[in-house]
Specification:
Length: about 120
């Protein structure tokens, strides 16, 4: 079993910044990819950013240049630095971990990010 715990969400004004953290624990012999997803009310969950074991990253077009994903492999943690936040970034942000390319993955419980004046 794998457990993921997100932290760092909150309320921020447009143009502000927030940093999210996700700590992974449990049966983790290898991590293939970790990532951040978000789900706004009435919308489907979407990928925000992912980072592979080797360090390669992918970002949603909507967050490129504003968000940065990073990992600490020694601590099994993944981070999301969010700058220049917009109201449309408001969503519940979820952390996901896959141990291999065949793994369906594990999800955290989510953390709310609200961008509003």
């Amino acid at each position: 079993q794998v457990q993921l715990v997100e932290s760092g969400g909150g309320l921020v004004q447009p143009g502000g910044s927030l940093s999210l953290s996700c700590a992974a624990s449990g049966s983790i012999d290898n991590i293939y990819v970790m990532g951040w997803y978000r789900q706004a009310p009435g919308k489907q969950r979407e990928v925000v950013a992912i980072i592979f074991n080797g360090g390669n990253t992918n970002y949603a077009d909507s967050v490129k240049g504003r968000f940065t994903i990073s990992r600490d492999n020694a601590k099994n943690m993944v981070y999301l630095q969010m700058n220049s936040l917009k109201p449309e970034d408001t969503a519940v942000y979820y952390c996901k971990l896959r141990r291999s390319s065949y793994d369906v993955g594990y999800w955290g419980q989510g953390t709310q990010v609200t961008v509003s004046s």
